[in-house]
Amino acid sequence: MSYADVAALLPLMIVSATAVFLMIAIAIRRNHKVAVTISLIGLVAALGSLDLAASVLPRQVTSFFILDSYSFLYMAILLSAAAFVLLFAYDYLNCREEHPEELYILVLLATTGAMVLVASRNFASFFLGLELLSVALYAVIAYVRTESISIEAGIKYLVLAASSSSVLLFGLALIYFESGSMELSQFTATATRTAGHANSSLLVTGLMLVLTGVGFKLAVVPFHLWTPDVYEGAPLPVTAFIATVSKGGMFALLLRWFHVSSGHIAGAAGLVLSIIAIASMLTGNLLALRQTNVKRILAYSSIAHMGYLLVALLAGGPLGAAAATYYLAAYLVTILGAFGVMTALSGPRLEAASLDGYRGLFWRKPLVAAAFMTMLLSLAGIPLTAGFLGKFYVLTAGAAESRWVLIFTLIASSTIGLFYYLRIVVVMYARPADAGTIRDVSILPLPLPTTIALAALTGLVFLLGVYPALFWGTIVEVTRNLG
Amino acid sequence: MILPCLILILIIGGVASWIVARRNAVVARWIALVSVLANLVVCVGIWIAHLDQSQSTPDRWFVECNFNWIPQFGIHVHLAIDGLSFALLLLTYFLGIMAVLSSWTEIRERVGFFHFNLLWVLAGITGVFLAVDLFVFYLFWELMLVPMYFLIGIWGHERRIYAATKFFLFTQMSGLLMLIAIIALAVFHHQSTGIFTFDYQQLLETALSPRAARLLMLGFLVAFLVKLPAFPFHTWLPDAHTEAPTAGSVILAGLLLKTGAYGLIRFVLPLFPGPSRELAPIMMTIGVIGILYGAVLAIGQTDLKRLVAYTSVSHMGFVLLGVFAGNQIALEGAVVQMISHGISTGALFILAGLLQERMHTREISAMGGLWETMPALSGAGLVFAMASLGLPGLGDFVGEFLVLLGAYRANVSLTVVATLGLLAATLYGLRFAQSAFQGPNPQHWKLPDMRVREWAMLGLMMIGLVWIGLYPQPVLNTVRPSLTAAAECIPAGNCQEIKR
Q: CB–CB of A429 and B153 under 8 A?
């Protein structure tokens, strides 16, 4: 490996080295504050190294990794998301678990896994990244051992993720058997091949099995069944991590290797992805309607949002990948903010998950409620928020490629989605319940790290919604040459 | 630069009154009042400045401003004002002042947040009337919904959550369809010219296949017909209007409905002349159905606000009829009808608010004989009921008369049927005036009559109605140039059919 190769891999190495370093530090002496500081410094250093390593791009390092501006952009997004998760986790763990430090090691490992996914160009690195992410997640989901619901969620995720990984592995094996190559780039070739040169059935079967594994991680219909339970059971910062880093990393891989810049995804893959997209949009939004737990509502809404992202992926064309990236960034910022508010409102024993807990929030804590409302309106796609411009770009990408069925499903389902976002908003504005039922927790002032993080995220939601020109150019530039 | 100021004044005023209300609610009310008043003054100032220079530069727009916003998609913050927007903005601020005044004693809790929402709705409406970039137009179109949703949902009456959610979903769904149409229009423009733009005047020149034009027009049409509201899409209106607080009802009926009509005149007719011509008979029929349906249902209502809400459906039917009649007279009638309906219906809602504040009921059957205890208020009620039923000499008559005159040239039979709506209007107007104000006073109401503030509100609105009723020429002169631009798009095809 040359110097340039090392430089290009620097972000990945810094994050994993931080994990190791943190492990040693904990062995020497446990200190929550030191642990979170080390992890944050590691993440920030990795972010900084992205800038440093940018000069050697694009670069293929061994046959495993491709490091170009696309992977760096996604790494930056994932690293920032992980940093926000850590900020929320600090306050969350501060008031409950007696050994909170290991969570940071696991989160750093999972982040490394997601970054490997983003940069992988080979079946082996793909699987490596996926497992690194999954195995770390098994442990963090069940991290709060005193909660039986948390343990249940961890086991559920373990069983389902392990089986989906094996399905994925089988799919990869079938493709390797047929083509004799481990390159991920053959996905693009298979997906675009027109009816004239039909793919062999083994190749198609393999591709479908791979999509099953990918779909599981993204939690799209029909592989979504774990989502509400795991979202509900996992500790709030971990839920935020699953919703952002885990899904973001996997989507980056899907977008890179299935994106088609001219024409569109043809044959079985296109059909299956379209069905998945439509089913996810409708199912996610419809099932969210009857929920009374905010974590479950956001779980179902995440299914729908992954559906919207698939619309952008399916649209393809010159705008598709850029629109998907913008939408993903907007969604990650928004959902991080939403879970951040929920973390901030959680007490030492109970998480603020039940819808009733939000009754009259606006009159008790106007600023927190305003931040939460901003996030909900952004998820619903109301103008001046990030979610609206994301949706606008997705619609534009779809219209430019005449994917009318997908677009109309998107419109119909996002109108359904409005119902439950508005329900939360209405509850927040309702007259406060009798003084006796208001929990004492809610009177505590917000801890400083959470306050800063929430302010930054709210600002970002508006920035992405009001002045997209700042980011749009970069995103278009980065996504121009995919694959 | 003056146009963004109109919006900014309201936005800043809203924030200021929210902050100030924590200390002093009365000051917050005054801030709200002063910021709307300032806008009214600025608006009149623009008009006067325009009168001075109009001889030299016969531009399409009095004033316009254009900032680059999202260059990648050719989106500009492009605001412009012409006669039509000017007339409607004047109405907006006039009714805005009335809305602030009418909630002076009605709204007692969360005063700051109330005025914040009120001013932000007005800011959204201002943006809608000013925007000539379709993306920006959509932005404001959506933005006025959220504060309106809060106005209904927080300060409304018994079933406010239901009404607010229904209102939001109806308008949001139709708005999203319009968004698709806007995007598709821009994409088609991009495909034929290679330029991505959302600018109104550039999109006017987009060459569209008849089929595409028809589909795109439907997207716009749905949004505007829901807002108007036209017959099958009107079901949100009675609920929203009834449950909203007085100021909310005034703004809903007086202004939000007008944005639908404005959209038809500003966007649908010029952007899609061909399909507009094709669909004109259907639209006129829908308008006539709305006129009769709204009027007949209004006769049967027992809730005063619900009655007024259904009369709005009926009156907006006239607007739809006028817009699609395809000639200048009907179009001018539609605009006059929009303005006078805004004033007369707004006044009726304020009246209903005053009655509710005093009697704590909106049931007409619980009223009766109010004249003996509140002669002034009852007298005002009679005037506005007469205006609503189209008494000559008051604003609504001019509008309806011009619409019928124009529509008669386009389609005789529909016009004849539409005239029946005036008959039904007499029925509901007189029934309301008779059973609320006249007759015996079975409940033995003893109520205070109008106060100075209430006198000022209703008096000003009465003056406005009488002015439009007796001398509508200034209004017509103001809006005529913009309407000519819209009417030119529909060559008098309908008229020729009649002659044959």
A: yes
